[in-house]
Amino acid sequence: MTRTVLISGAGIAGSVLAYWLSRAGFAPTVVERAPDLRRSGGHAVDLAGVAVEVVERMGLLSAVQDARVRRDSVVFQRRRGRPLRMPRLSASVSDRHVEIQRDDLVSILYDAAAPNAEYVFGDAVAAVGDAEEGVSVEFEKSPPRTFDLVIGADGLHSRIRRLTFGAEDRFRNDLGAYLSVYSYPNSLGLDREVLSHVCADRAAFTYAVDGGRRARALLLFREGRTPGVELSRAQQLDMLRGAFGGIEHLIPPPLSGAETADDFYFDSISQIRMETWSRGRVTLVGDAAYSPGPAVGGGTALAVLGAHVLAGELARAGDDHRAAYERTERVMSAPVAQSRKVGPSALAQLVPRNRVAAWCTPHLMKLLTRLPRSVTLALFSLQGSDKQTLEDFSSETVG
Ligand SMILES: Cc1cc2nc3c(=O)[nH]c(=O)nc-3n(C[C@H](O)[C@H](O)[C@H](O)COP(=O)(O)OP(=O)(O)OC[C@H]3O[C@@H](n4cnc5c(N)ncnc54)[C@H](O)[C@@H]3O)c2cc1C
Question: How many domains does the chain have?
Fold first, then answer.
């Protein structure tokens, strides 16, 4: 009998998993809380190392490369003096590296997975009852169903994690900062440059998206106090105004854009640390299991790799999901541990702690763009998935 798998979350990990599971002979159902994928939002994310290889094995490398972000300079706005313009540095930080808007990547992965998976939008899991013979699942809207396996790919604030392992704060390690991303009309006439302003505890970036019709803002700020994750949008906007209101004349993106954006994203920069990601027939993948922190730890590449490994191990293990879950945790432990180390240091570079460090940031970046490529690779090839080798599961099927 075909084995049924419920995946909660149609983000990066969810669709990579659905694609590989259906190829291996499973019947995946993906339930996504959002009503659809349009304007799912988000900043540019990085695919590097073996994550690029996974995408290539899915036959999606050219689609991903066609959609990649093309920007050629970073302009640092400064309090005094002329703006500092420098060539982009990201191309030099990994041997295989693609920078792509999260919403573009999500829809490319969805298009690849959807023909062979059932997708249910606008619904969410309300309860899971794990038993020897299967997992009974109640939904917020759809009638209850039973699945052979349930996998939480529902991000940093995973509901499957909460229902299966307990409250989020047991596993969340806040790095003391927040990020917000939103789109607004391209009133600044941005083209292929990134405008930025970096000062103590705050950093603001903006660049054109949607062929120049709109621009996207990325704001990061330190905030020691963590007022919990269940903030309303009004509270999130208050925090943004508190952090950037006093320097609004210096930062390139308008704060007012955050109020009306249809793709407003706001989250704490937090890591998820768990001793195990699996219990019974339920497991977690991507940010739900091991978020290294949005914007700072290579979480997208890790989610792609983790979903590929989990699907491959499930296909190889046949009926023995326990063995597959154990092997997945073993294979992923090194890249996950590595990615955890990256977050705090990347955050320190992105959002300097004081004025001296803020002054140094553009100068350091300029220096890095002048270093030989072998040196920048050695310095920055830090993302957890970069050093992993990829197993070939293509001949594994359960059918
Ligand atoms: C809207 C959005 C914007 C983002 N923007 C950025 C960004 O700008 N910078 C950055 O570094 N990271 C961002 N991230 C996080 C980044 O995408 C992930 O860190 C990374 O790609 C890992 O992917 P993932 O698939 O594990 O999780 P995610 O990409 O977070 O995907 C999780 C999916 O699960 C869905 N979901 C959540 N709860 C439920 C539920 N209860 N039931 C069903 N579905 C649920 C979400 O809508 C989402 O589609 C964003 C995530 C989201 C959801």
Answer: 1
How confident is the model at residue 374, as a pLDDT?
Answer: 56
Sign of CA dihedral 376, 382, 388, 394: negative
Identify whether 187 is part of a domain. Answer: no
Mean pLDDT of the 58-68 span: 93
Residue 295, H or E segment: none
Both tokens of residue 387? 């050093």
Q: Is 3 helix (H, G, I), strand (E, B) or coil?
A: coil
Q: What is the domain-level CATH number for residue 310? A: 3.50.50.60
- Dist CA 241 CA 372 (whole Å): 41
Asked if 127 and 63 touch (Cβ cutoff 8 Å), the reply is no
Closest CA to ligand 1's atom 3: 42
**Nearest CA among 321, 35, 29, 48 for reference residue 153:** 29
Say if 40 falls within a structural domain: yes
Please report the pLDDT score of residue 327 as a whole number. Answer: 97
Residues 6+ away with beta carbon under 8 Å from 58 = 16, 19, 109, 112
**Euclidean distance between CA atoms 113 and 37, whole angstroms:** 13
Confidence of residue 249 (pLDDT cuts 50, 70, 90): confident
| Residue 193 forms part of a structural domain | no
Residue 285 Cα: closest atom of ligand 1: 26
Determine the average pLDDT of the residues in 385-389: 58
Domain that holds residue 18: 4-69+100-171+271-348+373-380
For residue 357, is it within any domain?
A: no
Phi and psi torsions of 116, nearest 5°: -120, 20
Q: How many helices (H) and strands (E) does the chain have?
A: 12, 18
The minimum-distance atom of ligand 1 relative to the CA of 158 is 38
Residue 312 Cβ contacting ligand 1 at under 6 Å = no
How many CB atoms are located within 10 Å of the residue 392 CB?
A: 8
**90 band by pLDDT with thresholds 50, 70 and 90:** low
| 134 Cα: distance to centroid of ligand 1 (angstroms) | 27
Please tell me the pTM assigned to this model.
0.90
200 phi/psi in degrees, rounded to 5: -60, 125
Q: Per-residue pLDDT tens for 190-228?
A: 888 888 888 889 999 998 888 889 999 999 999 876 665
Residues 277-336 have pLDDT tens digits of: 999 999 999 999 999 988 887 899 999 999 999 999 999 998 899 999 999 999 999 999
Distance 294 CA to ligand 1 centre (A): 9
